[in-house]
Amino acid sequence: MNKVHIPTKEEFIKGIEEFEKHENRDAMYKVATFLISHFWSKASDMADGLGVLLLTWNQAFYRYGNFDFDKLEECIKNNLEKLKKFKSRDITTLSKSDEPDMKSIFTEFMKSLQIASGNMEGRKSPVAVAKALHLLAPNFFPLWDVRIAKVYGCYYNNYPAEKYIRFMKLMKEFVEKVRGYVVLSNYQNKTLLKLIDEFNYSKYTKGWI
DNA sequence: TTCTACCGCAAGCTGAGGTT
DNA sequence: AACCTCAGCTTGCGGTAGAA
Known about the structure:
Layout: H1 9-22, H2 26-38, H3 43-57, H4 59-62, H5 69-87, H6 99-112, H7 126-136, H8 146-151, H9 160-178, H10 192-205
The chain binds a DNA duplex through helix 4, helix 7, helix 8 and helix 10.
């Protein structure tokens, strides 16, 4: 399915409500968001902030072994200028000319966030990359997981960066359609992309609605 | 009461093997 | 080529039943 199903306002809000009812790890998102914005441009502290989220939310992946914080710090340093630009952007401004930068940044984060030791050394996680990029540019990079990616026809077993770009285009359309559904200040100033992930997670990953 | 063994599970990934 | 399904992987933790 490559066509975006746009929910009604009622369905959308129901998804967000169910997420908040069932999912109690959301505190990590707030803490990590604060750390990233507070320590912006200090790559080492930013890496710690990302770690807060990744090692909790993405525990299903990192239970096999952690990523290397030094590598992540290096990756953030190398991409800080690009990240700064994306941070100030909204996904609705996404254009074809962004694709080379997005692709290279996705690929570099994929390398730096791979499992760094143990039997599963080298294993990569496109889901973790999206979480990291979203924290760094919360109005520009969307969140996904395997179930959500499949529903939107963006399953990432091959060419994950390309699939993520495809997913971004779909989420851009989603944002444009549901913009008027909610007043963000009623949702602890989460971004629309975060709320969309809560909806997607409730509907497609968990089947709560 | 405390120790032990066992079960179930987690905002996932990979590969093989299928279909379209 | 793209896409999907599903078993298998692997670790640490909380809960539980039963033994010591």
